[in-house]
Amino acid sequence: MTLGGGVATRVNPPPCGAAAPTARAPRLPRRALHGVLLLDKPLGWSSNDALQKAKGLLRAAKAGHTGTLDPLASGLLPLCFGAATKFSQANLDADKRYRATLKLGQRSSTGDGEGEIVQQREVALEHAAIAAAIARFVGSIDQLPPMHSALKHEGRALYDYARRGLSVEREPRRVTIHRIELLDWQHDTLVLDVHCSKGTYIRTLAEDIGEALGCGAHLAALRRTGSGGFGVDDALTLDALAAMDEAQRDARLRPADALLAHWPRVQLDDAEAGRFLTGLRRRVNLDDAAAVRVYGPGGAFLGSAHIAGGELIADRLLTPAEVAACTEHPK
Question: Which domains does the chain have, with CATH numbers?
Answer without folding.
Answer: 35-94+230-251 (3.30.2350.10), 96-227 (3.30.2350.10), 263-328 (2.30.130.10)
